């Protein structure tokens, strides 16, 4: 199926599900979905809700708000709840499922207030090849996935956004801060703070796609392979500053950045 056919199918799906509430994060996927929905339905029938919890980086929230303003989106930001104490201690491999169920409850209340017929997210075909219990949880709650229904991949999303002249088309992929902590390791506010500060440091140094994985007292840095020489050139400064944040050791993952690297230990 060519891209124009996929886009036509997406637009038809959105029309048929209106009025629609979009689970918005400010990432490329949800931003494109919101932009297309607003273009077709108008802002009153294509509302966006960003659930802002402790797992969301502050930079991500700021960028989401900026995106929404530039697109003229009808955005509401609602405070999200943290995981329960027990779930933080256990940090199970289906952690995302628990998060999404809590997020859905917030979205459902907003949809009821707005009179929205459907709640939609930016999940796409490319996500189906990864460990994504959150998609299954959203599906079980009745959330629709227009990109999946239209057979649209992550690459398609970026290309559609580029063709539409949307400035976020090449924005780096993002994920919640919880995903930087290995399953089975307790999630704490201190760990989240250390991760966010370390990633902010590297982003400010010009690294576009970066993850800092928290392995006890070890920071495992993932950057794109083409950025490895740059990070090695800055290693003394980076190592000193990340140790000041609280890590004892600072390492570079030689496989480079990859989405869901914490899932590689799952059978």
Automatic annotation (TrEMBL):
Keyword Transferase carried by entry: yes
NCBIfam families: ATP-dependent sacrificial sulfur transferase LarE (TIGR00268)
UniProt keyword annotations, A-Z: Transferase
Pfam families found in the cross-reference section: NAD_synthase
Name assigned to this protein: ATP-dependent sacrificial sulfur transferase LarE
Biological process according to GO: purine nucleotide metabolic process
Organism: Methanospirillum lacunae
Gene3D superfamilies the record matches: HUPs
InterPro entries: LarE (IPR005232), NAD/GMP_synthase (IPR022310), Ni-pincer_cofactor_biosynth (IPR052188), Rossmann-like_a/b/a_fold (IPR014729)
Domain spans labelled NAD/GMP synthase: 21-85
GO molecular function: sulfurtransferase activity
């Amino acid at each position: 199926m060519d891209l124009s056919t996929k886009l036509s199918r997406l637009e038809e799906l959105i029309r048929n599900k209106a009025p629609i509430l979009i689970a918005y994060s400010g990432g490329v996927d949800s931003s494109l979905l919101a932009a297309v929905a607003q273009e077709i339905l108008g802002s009153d029938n294509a509302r966006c809700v960003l659930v802002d919890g402790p797992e969301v980086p502050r930079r991500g929230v700021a960028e989401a708000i900026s995106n929404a303003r530039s697109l003229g989106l009808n955005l509401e930001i609602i405070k999200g709840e943290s995981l329960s104490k027990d779930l933080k201690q256990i940090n199970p491999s289906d952690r995302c499922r628990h998060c999404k169920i809590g997020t859905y409850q917030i979205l459902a209340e907003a949809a009821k207030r707005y009179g929205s017929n459907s709640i939609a997210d930016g999940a796409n075909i490319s996500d189906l090849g990864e460990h994504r219990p959150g998609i299954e949880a959203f599906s079980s709650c009745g959330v629709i996935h227009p990109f999946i229904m239209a057979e649209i991949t992550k690459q398609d999303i970026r290309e559609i956004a580029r063709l539409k002249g949307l400035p976020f088309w090449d924005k780096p992929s993002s994920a919640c801060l919880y995903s930087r902590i290995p399953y089975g390791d307790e999630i704490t506010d201190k760990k989240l703070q250390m991760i966010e500060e370390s990633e902010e440091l590297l982003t400010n140094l010009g690294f576009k796609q970066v993850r800092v994985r928290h392995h006890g007292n070890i920071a495992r840095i993932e950057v794109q392979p083409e950025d490895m020489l740059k990070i090695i050139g800055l290693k003394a400064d980076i190592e000193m500053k990340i140790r000041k944040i609280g890590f004892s050791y600072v390492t570079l993952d030689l496989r480079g950045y990859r989405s869901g690297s914490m899932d590689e230990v799952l059978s």
